[in-house]
């Protein structure tokens, strides 16, 4: 069997001579107490069979019998021809809780820690989500067993010492006279203490590597404490990085931008041009001629090709023949 998994057990009933199912075990007497139902008898048979396998150390086979019991008990609760009483329902829940409790033992033996934790928990609160208080049917000493086994799985499987101690303390409340619980609690608390001491020792060793730490000077040197952490400083004067590229101090750049914006008042310029057009049409015409000449001169300059998406220059269009 692979670690971390288990299989359900099955009971094979042979067919009769004519090929039909054997229904001799079916109850045919109408409404009946739960103890007389065939499913209830199958549950008890699987319980006894699982217990036998556990005594013989055959825990994998026992897992199958207990798992079958759990499924049968679920089906049993849905039977409508049973004369249900509260005692009868509790009896079925107790069968199922005992099966989960025994499964936790099997999984501990098989070192399947997650299943051991889960089945011990279900033994105490059932397998419904959210938990149904009606499934809380184990006697106090049985709850102590479930907590004891869950603590073992938490400690041995996951090294969760604090969780194990918590479960064992609760188990000791349910079974204060149980010597095994008391001994396990002492051992686990001792292991938890040693684990904490080892962690403290490791931390102390780290801090004691430097003599300055031993003197109480801390783990940082004076140079580390005094070093400037304000980041790189911007130049106070314009600095040439390459041809056409300068780094200008932020304050100076802002001042130049502000000065440029202050020098050109586009609204005022537009107003003056409008007045020139109305009051001095000859001067306005002369200005138009000069502007046209400047635009023609600008258009005659050679065009610089743009870069393509890949960063390579575009090829200029071929000249007309």
Automatic annotation (TrEMBL):
<feature type="region of interest" description="Disordered">
    <location>
        <begin position="248"/>
        <end position="267"/>
    </location>
</feature>
<keyword id="KW-0802">TPR repeat</keyword>
<protein>
    <submittedName>
        <fullName>Uncharacterized protein</fullName>
    </submittedName>
</protein>
<feature type="region of interest" description="Disordered">
    <location>
        <begin position="298"/>
        <end position="321"/>
    </location>
</feature>
<feature type="compositionally biased region" description="Acidic residues">
    <location>
        <begin position="304"/>
        <end position="313"/>
    </location>
</feature>
<dbReference type="InterPro" id="IPR011990">
    <property type="entry name" value="TPR-like_helical_dom_sf"/>
</dbReference>
<feature type="region of interest" description="Disordered">
    <location>
        <begin position="217"/>
        <end position="242"/>
    </location>
</feature>
<dbReference type="InterPro" id="IPR039663">
    <property type="entry name" value="AIP/AIPL1/TTC9"/>
</dbReference>
<keyword id="KW-0677">Repeat</keyword>
